[in-house]
Amino acid sequence: MNNQQQKEMWNGRAGASWVRHNTLLEQLLAEPGRRCMDALSPPSGAQLLDVGCGCGNQTLELASRLDASAKITGVDISEPMLALAEELKAANHTALKAEVEFIVGDASDSLFPNESFDAIYSRFGVMFFADPTAAFATLRETLKPGGQLAFVCWQSPALNPFFTAPMQAALSVLPPPPPAKPGAPGPFGLAVPETTKHVLTEAGFNKPSIEPLALELSVGASQSFDEIFEELIQIGPAAALIAESDPSLKDRAREAVYERLLEFYSPGNGVSFEANFWLVTARR
Ligand SMILES: C[S@@+](CC[C@H](N)C(=O)[O-])C[C@H]1O[C@@H](n2cnc3c(N)ncnc32)[C@H](O)[C@@H]1O
Question: Is residue 134 part of a domain?
Fold first, then answer.
């Protein structure tokens, strides 16, 4: 399956940004991942797959929840992100109960034998497939009969100021990028629940359940606004837009984003965003 554009992106600018800002991103995004882990009920000795595991934080956290006879495999197309995952694994090996393995590969390819896993988990790693139905059908094959799928993904941009607030501010200065097709691979690739249900059903999954999850995401409680800003300005779609913009407009775009993000800051709490996710579960 051809996910070439995503491979380039996650082995290039996006992957480098996730590696550089891993600590901040994990502070922001740990909770939706935990809620998704809570939806899993892996048996003793479970074999788990973390799809699009990135820098491996969630894979390692899951491993600390499993027993010593269990194993979790993290798969990702991004070599730099998996290199950090291996470093974090080595640094945290004493806290890990289960065996952990990281594999470079496209999760939509048939990388694993049929019926390998008791459960498939993903935090924000399954919205990037060029052909989601085919990808989920392949993943379903790797589940044991009755095996569980649980993932968390973003609801629409309109409900997620983490993306829209800096983007709108940047767009007050910069020309807009070409519009993305609805459902195109990206953070909002599975934002429409009816589409997700259709994809999972077509892929052969049973009992798809898609529940809303509303959380407040906070970062930098002990930092000044300027410190947090210097990281946030380098993350996400607004960062990409500014990076590719006319150099003469960059400073004004940065200032606009600064002013907008300041509205989400309070001393002692850092920067906080209301965020809306879908918590999706299904069975083979
Ligand atoms: C938004 S990041 C999330 C990373 C990680 N799950 C987390 O929550 O920190 C999306 C991840 O999906 C990975 N990815 C995208 N398409 C993929 C594919 N076809 N197969 C495996 N990984 C993929 C990217 O390389 C990236 O690491």
Answer: yes
